[in-house]
């Protein structure tokens, strides 16, 4: 079973493009993707998430890779929002994977997907932002977002 939370790691990179490994589980559902990204995508994601949430209506989304038919690699979407008047946070996750390693060559157009959500704390988002910045600069290690146990 995948550990509860979200983890992003470098898969590989060259001088033009990179691939990251994104996995998450809320304890009931899990998703994994290996999207292609620009070399600055992790720093841009950190910039977008910095200071979340500013207020109860604050919503931010980051995406990695391309979604649907015609895209290469995988896709991950992370949408951050507050779900109540007290400012408690959640992240809605969408994962798509082309699954090319496990299907016959004639079925490359087939992909798997997962959609689920998890509760988060603002302090955990701050730690995740710092992890994204380290991951961007070091091109090694991982960025992790802790999920709360719902209930």
Give the topology, please.
Elements lengths: L4 E9 L4 E8 L4 E4 L2 E2 L3 H9 L10 E6 L9 E8 L6 E9 L14 E9 L1 H17 L3 E4 L6
Antiparallel strand pairs: 1-2, 1-9, 2-3, 2-4, 5-6, 6-7, 7-8
Name a few traits of the molecule:
151 residues; alpha+beta; 4-stranded antiparallel beta sheet; 9 strands; 5-stranded antiparallel beta sheet
Put the structure in a nutshell.
The protein is 17% helix and 39% strand. The protein has 151 residues and is of the alpha+beta class. The protein has one domain (5-145).
Biggest sheet layout: 5 strands, antiparallel
User: Can you count the helices?
Assistant: 2
Number of folding domains? 1
The string of secondary-structure elements, in order, is EEEEHEEEEHE
Secondary-structure-derived class: alpha+beta
Q: Tell me the fraction of residues in β-strands, as a range.
A: 35-45%
Proportion of helical residues = 10-25%
Q: How widely separated are the two ends? A: 20 Å
Calculate the mean pLDDT score and round it.
90
Number of strands: 9
Residue stretches low in confidence (pLDDT < 50, at least 5 long) are: none
- Structural shape: globular
For the CA atoms, what is the radius of gyration? 15 Å
Structural summary, described in words:
- There is one protein chain.
- This protein has one domain.
- Helices cover 17% and strands 39% of the residues.
- It has helices at residues 41-49, 122-138; strands at 5-13, 18-25, 30-33, 36-37, 60-65, 75-82, 89-97, 112-120, 142-145.
- The strands form two sheets. Strands 1, 2, 3, 4 and 9 form a five-stranded antiparallel β-sheet that branches. A four-stranded antiparallel β-sheet has the order 5-6-7-8.
- Strand 6 and strand 7 form a beta hairpin.
- Helix 1 runs antiparallel to helix 2 (122-138).
């Amino acid at each position: 079973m995948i550990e509860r939370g979200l983890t992003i790691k470098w898969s590989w990179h060259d001088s033009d493009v990179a691939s990251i490994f994104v996995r998450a589980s809320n304890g009931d559902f899990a998703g994994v993707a290996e999207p292609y990204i620009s070399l600055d995508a992790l720093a841009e994601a950190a910039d977008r998430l910095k200071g979340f949430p500013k207020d109860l209506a604050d919503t931010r989304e980051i995406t990695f890779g391309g979604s649907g038919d015609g895209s290469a690699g995988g896709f991950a979407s992370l949408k951050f929002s507050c779900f109540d008047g007290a400012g408690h946070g959640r992240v809605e996750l969408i994962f798509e994977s082309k699954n090319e390693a496990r299907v016959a060559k004639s079925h490359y157009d087939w992909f798997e997907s997962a959609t689920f959500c998890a509760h988060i704390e603002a302090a955990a988002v701050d730690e995740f932002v710092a992890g994204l910045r380290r991951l961007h600069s070091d091109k090694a290690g991982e960025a992790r977002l802790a999920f709360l146990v719902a209930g």
